[in-house]
Design goal:
By secondary structure, the chain is mainly alpha-helical. It contains eight helices and no strands. It has helices spanning 5-9, 15-19, 33-52, 56-60, 70-82, 96-126, 131-138, 143-164. It is globular, with a radius of gyration of 23 Å.
Length: 165
């Protein structure tokens, strides 16, 4: 029983290489961390949308249907300026005041994100996730970096809560 020389020298296609057009063709070249993070971000968004925002009812729980939150307003102005969203008929162009308003909302949007991140990190730890697992999810290189990030955000959100009272 002999095998053809081409069979022995031709590697079988790697299924992971077909799923990403930017995957390196050389199996000995490390993948780009930025490309891997971008792919993971897309995959994460798709997974959450598919599992938790597939129906009108699921999407309605994400935002209040009549009130625009700070992060949504900032995103909307940014999308309109960049062309990622189009103006509807009769809708005014984004002007300097709109941009200033969006910039003014950034600290509120950032504070909301900080609070969400701290809460999610605390729940992850409460569910038994390790710092290495959390670091991977956040795209950080070390568990120490994840823990330091949590501590920094936790102290920042405590100061924000104290000043609001």
């Amino acid at each position: 029983m002999t095998s053809k020389p081409s069979d022995a020298s031709t590697p079988s296609p790697d299924p992971s290489s077909t799923s990403s057009p930017s995957a390196p063709s050389d199996p000995f070249t490390a993948p780009s961390a930025d490309e891997a993070r971008a792919q993971r971000t897309y995959t994460s968004l798709f997974r959450i949308a598919e599992r938790h925002a597939a129906t009108d009812g699921q999407r309605r729980r994400q935002v209040h249907p009549h009130v625009l939150g700070p992060h949504e307003a900032v995103r909307l102005v940014s999308f309109l300026l960049s062309g990622a969203a189009l103006l509807e008929d009769g809708e005014p162009e984004v002007d300097r005041a709109d941009i200033t308003a969006a910039l003014s909302l950034l600290p509120l949007a950032r504070a909301e994100m900080d609070e969400l991140e701290v809460g999610l990190l605390e729940m992850a730890r409460g569910r038994g996730m390790t710092w290495p697992e959390i670091a991977f999810g956040l795209g950080l290189q070390t568990p120490q970096a994840a823990r330091q990030r949590y501590e920094r955000l936790a102290s920042r959100t405590e100061r924000t809560a104290d000043s609001a009272e």
